[in-house]
Design a protein that fits this description.
This protein is an alpha/beta fold. The chain has helices at residues 3-20, 27-38, 53-63, 79-83, 117-120, 124-129, 164-167, 181-191, 197-202, 212-219, 229-244, 254-270, 278-289, 297-301, 306-316; strands spanning 43-46, 68-72, 84-89, 94-99, 106-110, 131-134, 137-140, 146-151, 172-175, 248-250, 294-295.
Length: 321
């Protein structure tokens, strides 16, 4: 490993430990949010209310030295509420840009499916190009701009399904479940004491391990993690197989291939390795592909799940040695 790759490994371990001081019992979730951040991608976080989705992103922003903003998506939210607008300044006799919350590093789009499609689409350009166009003028977003969009998986009343084009821009879908009994017991004890998770973050116990500039530099170090040509071919074959599967109506596109390659490389970095293995691809396949696939109705009626389809595809494709 190079010195910079060692630094990346060290920072990932420190960030995981610091976030773990606040977020109890969500080790895999923490790892996958860090993967999204260090690959420069975005994540769709799904979980019932109360599992600390907002607190997780706030803590990540603090630990990685980045700005944080939150948007509560509602049916009456307008695109201008997200990106901002030009307002006429009477004193200066000119229009002045009032920036929206999208001008930040880590953006939490809370309950993103509660807003209609035209409002959700206000994030499309920002997520893909890190640019925002307001009144025909284009503005550049911070280099570390990352969107974490949350959804409630059990409540669909008053929601709008995410457009396929928008779901495709999320590298990962992260399922955030309830903690185990011992973990919830720890949370209960801390809540009654002085070290409740929110108080821990506010009290200065959690330290920032890097700043925004170093985060930007460390992202580039992922390129030093080796991925053999056979593994690249394997990844392409996995994604292409979703388009040919008889139970899948809409398969994953080329952006899914890119996401799976990046996710596998990030998985290797989280494990402290400077090379990617087939297990990295397998481990990340469901998180990368699940939200991109649409099953045929007749297979859904039979109770077939998308995760099951992905597992079947992985079993059918020969793993490179």
């Amino acid at each position: 490993m190079t010195d910079k790759t060692e630094r990346l490994k060290e920072v990932l371990a420190q960030a995981r430990a610091e976030v773990g001081k606040v977020i109890i019992g969500q080790a895999e979730v923490i790892d996958r949010t860090l993967m999204a951040i260090f690959t420069g991608q975005h994540a769709l976080v799904e979980g019932v209310p109360g599992v600390a989705k907002t607190l997780l992103v706030r803590t990540l922003a603090h630990v990685l030295g980045c700005e944080f903003a939150r948007i509560q998506f509602t049916p009456d939210l307008m695109p201008a509420d997200i990106v901002g607008t030009n307002i006429f300044n009477l004193q200066r006799n000119e229009f002045t840009l009032v920036k929206g919350p999208v001008f930040t590093s880590f953006l939490l789009a809370d309950e993103i499916n509660r807003a209609p499609a035209k409002t959700q689409s206000a994030l499309l350009q920002a997520m893909q190009e890190r640019l925002v166009t307001i009144d025909r003028e284009t503005h550049v977003l911070p280099a570390n701009f990352t969107v974490f969009a949350t959804q409630n998986p059990i409540e669909y009343e008053g929601t709008y399904p995410l457009p396929e084009a928008q779901k495709d821009r999320f590298m990962l879908k992260i399922s955030m479940g309830a903690p185990e009994r011992e973990e919830e017991l720890t949370l209960a004890r801390r809540t009654l004491g002085r070290d409740a998770p929110e108080a821990t973050l506010a009290g200065g116990t959690v330290k920032a391990v890097i700043g925004a500039e170093e985060l930007r530099a460390l992202r580039e170090e992922l390129a030093a993690i080796t991925m053999r040509e056979e593994l690249i071919s394997y990844t392409v074959d996995v994604v292409r197989a979703t388009r040919a599967n008889e139970s899948v109506l809409v398969g994953a596109g080329p952006r899914a291939t890119q996401s799976l390659l990046l996710a596998a490389r990030a998985s290797a970095a989280m494990a402290g390795r400077d090379f990617v293995t087939p297990d990295d691809v397998k481990t990340m396949a469901t998180a990368v592909l699940e939200h991109r696939l649409i099953l045929r109705p007749e297979f859904e009626i039979e109770g077939l799940g998308i995760a099951e389809v992905i597992r079947g595809i992985l079993e059918q494709i020969a793993v490179p040695r």
